[in-house]
Structure formats: structure tokens, C-alpha cells
Amino acid sequence: MIRIGAVLCCVALAGCNAVSSEGPLAGAINSDAGQSGAELGRQNAAVFDIIDIDSRSARLVSDYVSSTLSRRFGIGGGVGPVVIGVGDALKVTIFEAGSDGLFSTSQSKQVSLDIVVQPDGKAAIPYAGSVRFAGKTLDEARKGILAALASKAVEPDVIVTSMGTPSRTVTVSGAVGKPSMVSLDLTKEKITEVIAKAGGPSTQPYETYVTLVRGSRTGTVLLKSIIEHPSEDIYVQPGDQIFLVRDPRTFTLLGSVRGDGRIEFGANDLNLLEAVALGHGAIDDSSNAKGFFLFRYEEPDIVKSLLGPARFQGLLRKGMAPDAKGRYPIVYRFDMSHPDSLIVGQTFPIKSRDVIYVSRHPSVDLRKFLTIVGTPLGIAAQGAATAAVLNQ
């Protein structure tokens, strides 16, 4: 009798392979991790590894700060001295000590001149001729005028004031209140200050991406990250282009959950438990508590820290390849059967475009097969086969 039961069990388990199902079992994901395409028999298979979500990995991922803008453009944006440019409007006020000078009378010892810097970078000043302004600071321009008037005016003094800076503009467009060419003052201004001049963002910071284009370099970062991390709020430079785009952060929930699909964050932050809850939770009688997986292209610094240098290099040799942004494919494994999972899950942050997959329990495929069989053979085998699967 025992021999017959074993045979029936084997037949039932073998038949499970013929039952169509949705998505891989946890065992298939676990066994494919760290394998090359050649080892899997699929030459172009994506190479990935699995990392368990525990207190260490959750803390490392949560504490990581992306530095897209500061890394690409340098903290502060490499801003040098602020100088006058072609087209800028200036007010030049000249003072003289005597009442019989070039610019003074008995009624006034000063004169104010409104000038515009010409395409050759110069502007005309009476008795001083063409004076170069472009490329100079206000103080350097003042000293240049003084030098030109030193032997002509009576103890002259000069004040140069900026009245307009058309040469110092930044284009701000997209999801802002007033898309426009924003003029910079003769001071250093940051991204958030320039966005404010353009009417501020028209969408929530947690779903607004900021792209800075400077020459041939481009960097994109979430506005929320710029606000929270001052190192990302870099100084802009004349000629920069800033684009704001609303792109609601979403994740995809698949597998043995009550509500799968693409889901918007709808909040400033989202952790793993909240993400699963947005899909109304896992299905009790079919989900595998040990089989919660999060698929992500992860930042290289995080991958190297979690895997270690040796493991990381080994995966590269096997064919693990980055995406267009230099991030590597990683699968995070989450075990909901442990009590502390409800604590750790609160600290693990979800990122935009994450895929969360809740695998089904192995017994699900067995139940499908036995339902299809629907014979005394299937009924007789059901108890022994189910027990065997559950004891795995």
C-alpha cells in the first residue's frame, strides 16, 4: 500500500509540470540566481543575483543618497567668478572732487550713464573711449574706467551697477508655473532658486523629475531628492537648460496578490509592506510566505556593498550587465514567515519601476493537477502528495 501511494504521489508531482501556471516558483528564481546563460542553457539569459532583505540590506538601501547632479557637474556646479556679458545693461556713476571737472558742475559733482555692453564686449564712456566690460566683474569694470579717467578727470571715483543681465539666462521649461528664460543676477543661484523664479513646480516634488542640460552633459534627478539633499541643489550657469517633467512614480505588483498591476506611489515615500498592501495583500491560500521577491536595477555602489567585491566581479565575468544608467539587475528576497519581517519591511524603500513578485506556493500547482485528473486515482493521491509538498 505504501508503494502504491508513493507511485501515485510521483505521478501527481510529475503531472504538475504539465499544468500551466503564472510566473516562476520561488525555487526556480532561487536556482537561477548567480547562473550564467550557458549554465542555464539559455545563451542570452539575464544574469542576476539574490540578496535577502534583512536589517543590514534595508538600512544600506535606505541610507543611500543618489548624487546624479553633484557627481556629474560637481558640487556647486563649478561656478567661477560672476562676470558681465554682452547685452548686459549697466549704470555707471562718475564722481569728481571739483566743480569744474569733466563730469561735474556747480550744481552737481556726479553724472550717471546708462550703457549696454556691445557685441564686441565694450561700451563707450565719455572721455575714456571704448572700455571693455565683457568678462569682467563689476569691480574690475570700475577699476578699468578709473584707469582710463585718471589723467583726465578731477580725482574721479566710479560706481558700476548692474541693471539687467541678458547674457546670464537659464531656460526653465516643462512642469513649472511660468516656463521662461530666467535672468540670473550677478550672484550665484541654485536650481531651486531658478525654478522659483519660473513660478515654481506645478506638480508634487515626489513625482517631478528635474533634468539639467549643460553643454554635452545631462543629469536627471527627482525634485524631492534636490530638496532633501542640498548637495544636489547645485549652482546653475548661464546657458543651462532645466526641464521639469511630471512622471508619477510607479511599481508593478505581480503574482499571488489580490490586486496586481501597475500602481502609483501616491505618496512622498513607500516601503515594501505598503506597496504590497496597495495590491490588497497576498492571497492566503496560494502565496508562498518565503517567496516575496523585488526585481530592480540597482545602483552599482549598493550592489558592490551588498555582494562584496569578489562576488560582484564573478557575476560580471558570468555576463551580468548594467542598464543604460549603469545600474545592475538584482533580486531582493523577502521572507514573510519571520516575525521581524514586519519591522524590516517598513524600512526597505520602494523605487520607481520596481517589480514586486509574490510567488505561489508549490502546492497550488499540485491542486490544479489533481483537479484536472478528477478521478479516484487523483483523489487517492491527493492526501499523500499534498503532505509531501507541504513538508518540502
TrEMBL record:
Top-level lineage group: Bacteria
Residues in Soluble ligand binding domain copies: 170-220
Pfam families from the UniProt entry: Poly_export, SLBB
Secretion signal, residue range per the UniProt entry: 1-20
Keywords: Signal
Polysaccharide export protein N-terminal domain location: 82-161
Record-level Gene Ontology MF annotations: polysaccharide transmembrane transporter activity
PROSITE patterns tied to this protein: PROKAR_LIPOPROTEIN (PS51257)
Gene3D superfamilies: Outer membrane lipoprotein wza domain like, wza like domain
This protein's record includes keyword Signal: yes
Keyword Nucleotide-binding: no
Protein name: Polysaccharide export outer membrane protein
